[in-house]
Amino acid sequence: MNLTLLLLPSIIMFGVSFLKSDRAKYILAFSSFVILLPIVELFLLPKPYNILGNYLVADNLDTYVLFLSSIVGIGVTLSLLTLDKHVKVSPNAYRKFYRFFAIFWVGLIFSILSNHMGIYWIGLELATLSTVYMIKTNYTPAAHKEAWNYMIVGAIAVSLILFGIILMYASAKPILGESAMEFNLLLAHAKEIPSPFLFEIGFAIATIGMFVKMGFFPMNLWLANIERASFYPVAALFSGILESAVIIGFFRFSKIAMEVNYNHLFLFVFVYTILTIFIVSFLIYRAKDFMRLFSLSGIEHMALVVIFWVSGAPFAALLHFGAHAFLKPALFLATGVLESNGKYKIAGALRGYKGKKGTLFWFLISLFILAIISLPPSPMFFSELYGFGAMINRAKQGDHILSMLVAIFLLLTLLSIIFYRFVAIYQSMKYEGETQEKKVYTSELFALILFAISLMALLLPTSLTYLQSIA
Amino acid sequence: MILYCITITLLILLAPLLLSYIKVTKMLLLFKRPISLFQGYRNFSKLMHKETIISKEASAITHYAPFLVLSPLLIVLFFLPPVVQGSYYVSFVDAFTITGLISLSTFFLMLLGLDSASAFGGMGSSREAFISALVEPAMVLTIFSVSLMAGNLGVGQAGVNLSEHFPKEHMASFLFSGISFFILLIAENGRIPVDNPETHLELTMVHEAMILDLTGIYLAIIETAASIKFIIFASLFAALFMPFGFEFSIPIAFLIFIFKLFFIATMVALLEVNTAKLRLFKIPNLLGLAIVFAFLSLITFYVLGA
Amino acid sequence: MVDFLIGLFLASLIVALFTTRLYRLLLWYSMNSLMLGLLALVIGDSLDDNAMILTGVMTILIKAIGIPYILKNLSQKFHFVRQITPKIKVQYAIMLVPAILVFTFYLSEPITHMMHTHANYVAISISALFLALLLMIEHRNVAPKIIGFLSMENALFLLGITATNGMPMLVELGIFFDLLMAIVVINLLFHKEELQV
Asked: What is the pLDDT, as a whole number, of residue B212?
């Protein structure tokens, strides 16, 4: 198992994207499916497995995240097959999309598997820059503007992350030397870092960079606008894959920060995420189109993942993250069909499906929509239950039980606003508006079924025990 | 004491030469046939012989003001840092005094412009007030921060301290105040990005507009005042921001000092050739930059100690 | 010497903030990068660190010469707006810039006590980061925003050189690679714009 094998599908994809024949489309899709194979092999190998010295190390956490991402990648590829039936897209743009998708995968594999802050950042930057071009495949002025927007804001966010990384490196360099950039060494020596203040400032700056990239507090509508302007598979990529690369960095950095000074970390992240959820819940209440709705709900879920992770419930965080990674791309991909008759139309979006395919489609979509507001069979329900439990447990150990209860009460109130809004939207989709016929294609249905199966697999006892073992 | 007197005489004598030198350099760079280097002296002697006519509407101020423009500048000449070792110098005069004296001179210049009630005079005075209001804070801050670096608030003493123990550890803030002071040098003396001393175009002139009515001996005095103002700034710049050559023997030190003055004049000439004059309402941008740098040098010194 | 260069670095960035012409802005960016490269050379020489000398040379070649040249070419090819007036008025910028500097200097004061070498430079590079952000904020056109992004990269580099005495070679090369990738993407974005019109 080596790096070449892991990167081979992407390299093939990059090469094939320059071919001008009609068959290229299918070869590209196929090479995109093949990415799963080495990752599955990686998943089965004994951990931790050093892929490239001490730079790229596969452990339980990152293979789990990479596995999720590759499944999302397959779903996105499936829906890309019939993208041209819903929107106007030239074959040339299609090939260019795959070219940058390949670069995106390279960056992503590096950043997720890295055990080195520098390589993590390089991968993340590569992935960010390649997505800029993917937004641009949609030939509209809005997409053009948003591509620039993403370029600028993404660059700021990524630069903040690098800034934080340099400060953290500087704080640990006196004891670890050049290897102060490796996560596992930093984690092992976290207590001995000579200048914790420097580390914490670095961590805070890097975290703000990551939060901005995920669309947290000051930048709530940023991602939503971009996802609105680009094609729907790009939106699915954003919420399913790119966020996983960002969140794994947060997981790794915060693990070290927990060792350095747990209370500071907890307070900082807690205030930041509650602020985010506070704003997002009201934005969701006012949202009037699917893209914005799903993207804001994605931000809310990421905030919950972050909050669960720092309050000492990594199991809940990973479960929540897994459910988010499957549900959001599925819904984003479905918007292509839901909005096929005129955009921004929520009322009646779930009506007018004929035949077996149509029935299956609307059934799955209803399930997904009800799942993201964590109705019981959804994994989100269990993760939230477990996560809030862990928060109370954490508070019991300290003497902040009252403030924690207030915070949880506030969170639940905000979540209930979101809950109310989603139920109202579901009713509007199903029972209001006029019936217009919409067409569902097999490949999209396959993608949705793939996500549904993976979601159910997440709830199997074996996968739950696997998640427990990561934590 | 004798060195002190020689220095001051030298500065007064060099002043018209330096301005003519700038003009000559500019003309050479623009491929024009240059004027003589001694044109400044020739102008002075010509104006001394001319008949002095004063506007009918002018009050007594026009009679006094030229002398009051020149005299504060002459006083400032006595407070400048020494040029050679062993020279007598006034050590206790600080940034506020020097800036105040220069502003006093500017104030009488503005009065002079207003006095004859011509349209141009008023316009020139208002522009001059606009510029000098922006120059003063930056000037105080700059000289203040450089005196702090030198460890003495007195400008004369600061110049000596700087050349004896150059503060290597404060190089960054030293650089910032140097940039700021150079901008001020250009702005206060009406050189090109701020004012063009060579034209009489009503849209652009500032300094010339105020003295449009004057002739004869009064004009000679005002022109001398302008050249002395330039040499004050140039020698302050030379003493505070190029603090070397002080330790050599007396004639060599003098030569180095004169060389520094001509170097500054060359820099100014190069800048004048290479830039276009700013619109009047863009001048705050330039002077704002000077204020930012002056402030930056102070806070870099205080907070970082760099 | 290092102090002098770092002063020039910050000075060129501040002057860039007040510039209203694109080519001047490119010139100041190039000056900024040149100072950074010279700084890397000087520090690398004093530490006897060959990797940092290499970085310095690369910085001068790529950032001080290459990127401004490419951007100038791009601007001629795609007819950028060359008169770029900052959105923030000068009188506010005059107050804002010192405020940022004071804020960052005091913010990083606890850090400077902890660092052993080049303590002040951390403060200066953090303030350079904020000034680059301001440069991005104050312009509406795309080209100055790109310059702001690149200056931000410079600020990060300064921090890397001074706070940590140079990052691992691998990471620095990776950063250069990403920078080139960014330039390629920017180029492509402009190409598309041209096709559309």
From this structure: 85
Would you call C189 and A163 a contact, using CB atoms and an 8 Å cutoff? no
Note whether C167 contacts A118, CB cutoff 8 Å: yes
CA atoms within 13 A on the CB side of A148: 19
Nearest CA in chain C to B172: C7
CB atoms inside a 10 Å sphere around CB B301: 22
ipTM value: 0.89
Judge whether C166 is closer than 8 Å to chain A, CB to CB: no
Domain boundaries, chain B: 2-304
User: Could you tell me the pLDDT band of residue A1, with boundaries at 50, 70 and 90?
Assistant: low
CA distance A73 to chain C (A): 23
Partners of B284 on chain C (C-beta within 8 Å) are 90-91
Three-state secondary structure along B206-254?
Answer: CHHHHCCCCCHHHHHHHHHHHHHHHHHHHHHHHHHHCCCCCCCCHHHHH
User: Checking phi first, is residue B278 left (phi over 0); if not, alpha (psi -120 to 50) or beta?
Assistant: beta
Please say whether the beta carbons of C58 and C46 come within 8 A: no
Tokens 């060099």 label which residue? B14
Q: Is the confidence at residue C166, as pLDDT, over 80?
A: no
Q: How many CB atoms lie within 10 A of CB B247?
A: 11
Cα gap C91→A248, rounded to integer Å: 44
Contacts of B288 in chain C (CB under 8 A): 18, 90-91, 93-94
pLDDT digits (tens, 9 = 90+) for C51-107: 888 888 988 998 899 999 998 998 888 888 888 888 888 888 888 998 998 888 887
Q: Go through chain C and tell me how many residues it has.
A: 197
Residues in chain C closer than 8 A to A197 (CB atoms): 110-111, 114
The span from the CA of C101 to the CA of A54, in Å, is 40
Which of B172, B292, B299 lies nearest to residue C94, judging by beta carbons? B292
C27 touches chain B (CB under 8 A): no
For the cut 70, the answer to whether the pLDDT of residue C193 exceeds it is no
* Residues of chain C numbered 4-23 and touching chain B (CB < 8 Å): 4, 6-8, 10-11, 14-15, 18
On chain A, the residues whose CB falls within 8 A of the CB of C130 are none
Q: Are B132 and B103 within 8 A, CB to CB?
A: yes
Amino acid in position A325: A
